[in-house]
Amino acid sequence: MNVNVLVIFYSRYGNTRLLADAVADGARQAGAEVRVRRVIDLAPENVMRQDQDWWTARTQMSQIYAEPTEDDLLWADAVIFGCPTRFGSPPAELKLFIDKLGSLWVQGKLVDKIGSAFVTTGTVHGGNEITVHSLLTTMMHFGMIIVPPGYADSSVFIAGCPYGASAVTGPESDKPPTEADIAAAHFQGRRVAERALVFKVGKTSLTSE
Asked: Strand 145-146 and strand 114-121: pairing?
């Protein structure tokens, strides 16, 4: 049986993107079919162009990652959100996408999907845990089943946190996630895919009896 994992992220300079790719690689290692999607920037083009690093990264990522759709969410058995923090909260780009999922929520289309989250911050203690918790709270409203990394692997003791992989990258693109951060994100993706498969097999078995 195959399991479908959807990674939805927002990244400005590409640092959160590195964690997203690591999460996706971990899920693939567990045998999952994976889609990686990036929500679009909300700032006007003339504003983005004033920051060359932002504009370059945005252009590159737009060529690689499609925007997420409701069809992606319906396809997925597991959904993993990732983003930088903005003053201790998810950025408007990801929040807007989530806020537009009311129709799926009211129809119960996200119920019993596996959910998880990861973040990056510009400073140590810059809101990583509270931002992850904010995303997990939203998933609880959707009726999703939360699967955090926990302290279930040695990589989490070295980097990340038990609620979701994280990295302190700073506002500039020359401070990417460390190898330890990548390892923790990779484990999270693998764990989510494995738990999603266990749940899917069990649910299928129960409904077929």
From this structure: parallel
Sequence-separated (6 or more) residues with CB below 8 Å from residue 22: 165, 177, 182, 183, 185, 186, 189
- Please state the pTM of the whole predicted model: 0.95
Q: Which two tokens stand for residue 15?
A: 């640092």
Q: How far apart are CA 135 and CA 12, in angstroms?
A: 18
CA distance 23 to 183: 9
Task: Tell whether the model's pLDDT for residue 51 goes beyond 60.
Answer: yes
Tally: H helices and E strands in the chain: 9, 6
Supply the DSSP symbol for 67: P
Cα–Cα distance for residue pair 148/130, rounded to 1 Å: 14
Residue 4: φ, ψ to 5°: -105, 125
Distances in Å between the Cα of 200 and the Cα atoms of 51, 70, 145, 194, 196 are 44, 20, 12, 10, 6
Comparing 174 with 131, the larger pLDDT belongs to 131
pLDDT tens column, 151-209: 999 999 998 789 999 999 875 545 789 999 999 999 999 999 999 999 999 888 777 66
Q: What is the DSSP letter of 168?
A: E
Between 208 and 65, where is the model more confident? 65
139 phi, psi to nearest 5 deg: -65, -35
